[in-house]
Amino acid sequence: MAMTIPSDLLPADGRFGSGPSKVRGEQVRRLLDVPAVMGTSHRRPPVRNLVARIRAGVAELLGAPDGYEVVLGNGGSTAFWDVATLCLVERRAQHASFGEFGGKFARATSRAPFLEDSQVIEAEPGSVAHLTAAGGVDAYATPHNETSTGAMAPVRRVADADDGALLLTDATSGAGALPVDLTETDAYYFAPQKAFGADGGLWLAVLSPAAMERAARVEAGGRWIPEFLSLTTAVENSRKDQTLNTPAVATLVMLADQVDWMLGNGGLDWAAKRCAASAQNLYDWAEARDWASPFVTRPAERSTVVGTIDLDPGIDAGKVIAILAENGIQDVFAYRKLGRNQLRVGMYPAVEPDDVAALTACVDHVVDRL
Ligand SMILES: *Cc1c(COP(=O)(O)O)cnc(C)c1O
């Protein structure tokens, strides 16, 4: 090993990935504790009860208003972009794009031959683009937390939008980690491998009555919608606590455990404060170093769940990341397409704030010796 970090500096757990992210040991052990679930039919009570627990737990955790429903399906958040393109955008979408993920959804609706050209409001990575009312737009879309850059935006309806326009919030890395008032949005969608510390492959969405009505109307019209991407089909299946096709049962087990863990510790308020404490530590540390600085300029836009720290050009972040990895500190690399000399740190609820502090001490140790 090129450099050994003293063990008393190392975090207890070295997983700081932005997704997939740290899975707690208890979640994995739960797979052994729940006989009669793994390897059983997703149409029978053991698995359906698990899905029911997840749906009720997510609704409670995120404070779903009356009439909102927790819906799920296979394919992760990327599949939900196609579901939304097909079933939630009637004629024209507007997107806030300030990083890879917001940009990907914008490309999905822009390419759809049955929609008018999407409006895309862009901002430089490291800042936040804001949706603005425009006539004829019936669906507005923005990330809650842009995982590729570490910038976050509050969930807020677009002032003066046309009546009935929907807001679609990509909360893949924000749900369960950032505060939210769901009355402010119509689709708050996410996947389990970020703040919920489970495994990938599913999408979940908390949908408003308006979103479900929109899907029913669009799907009753002439548009061809593959069954796998039909939101009304997903709603019908979710109401029966199942998915259209076979889900990864292990993901459900770990997700259910994480939701219970969060609720047992004080719910979303507890989780959000824990992430914010980790983030405060990381940003304060960076600001106190003359060779490191938070990438996101405006403090209010600095994500309290995925932190991005630029390093001075004289310090090779790739080398720092490689040494950290050799010492068991994993996945603090910048988003590949961003191409910056940067560390990116996932500070989801499962990550101990003390471990984030230990990580910063390890970076100091490595940089001092380069
Ligand atoms: C990870 C991520 C996605 C993609 O999620 P998948 O489940 O891998 O499709 C989408 N949006 C954001 C903001 C993400 O962080």
Automatic annotation (TrEMBL):
Record-listed E.C. numbers: 2.6.1.52
Alphabetical keyword list: Amino-acid biosynthesis, Aminotransferase, Cytoplasm, Pyridoxal phosphate, Pyridoxine biosynthesis, Serine biosynthesis, Transferase
Domain spans labelled Aminotransferase class V: 141-330
Keyword Heme tagged: no
InterPro entries: Aminotrans_V_dom, Pser_aminoTfrase, Pser_aminoTfrase_mycobac, PyrdxlP-dep_Trfase, PyrdxlP-dep_Trfase_major, PyrdxlP-dep_Trfase_small
Database matches in Pfam families: Aminotran_5
Pathway linked to the protein: Amino-acid biosynthesis; L-serine biosynthesis; L-serine from 3-phospho-D-glycerate: step 2/3
Cofactor names: pyridoxal 5'-phosphate
Enzyme class: transferase
Function (record text): Catalyzes the reversible conversion of 3-phosphohydroxypyruvate to phosphoserine and of 3-hydroxy-2-oxo-4-phosphonooxybutanoate to phosphohydroxythreonine.
UniProt similarity note: Belongs to the class-V pyridoxal-phosphate-dependent aminotransferase family. SerC subfamily.
Cross-referenced NCBIfam families: serC_3
Protein name per the record: phosphoserine transaminase
Organism expressing this protein natively: Myceligenerans pegani
Lineage: Bacteria, Bacillati, Actinomycetota, Actinomycetes, Micrococcales
